[in-house]
Write a structure and sequence with these properties.
The protein has 85 residues and is mostly helical. The protein is built from 4 helices and no strands.
Length: 85
């Protein structure tokens, strides 16, 4: 559990740092976190789906893909609501 929380928040911070600095190392770290959440989502949508969608939205927003980011933010909200977060 602790690793998943660390990966999730690490991913959020990494995408934020990427937007602030433009340093691709932060984008890579964000992608690694997103990949981990993607794998965990396969085993437990209840716990990880909303977090995966949020990282996906942050990735898209970081790459100026605003329309897809909006869609992913909405998916994150709906998933969190559905799973009682």
């Amino acid at each position: 559990f602790v690793l998943s929380v660390q990966r999730f928040y690490g991913g959020l911070v990494s995408f934020w740092l990427y937007r602030q600095s433009g340093d691709s190392i932060w984008a890579e770290r964000g992608h690694e976190a997103k990949l981990a959440l993607s794998k965990w989502t396969e085993s437990s949508q209840w716990n990880y789906q909303n977090k995966f969608y949020l990282l996906e939205a942050e990735d898209q927003y970081s790459n100026n893909d605003i329309e897809n980011a909006k869609s992913s933010y909405t998916k994150a909200i709906l998933s969190a609501r559905e799973h009682k977060f």
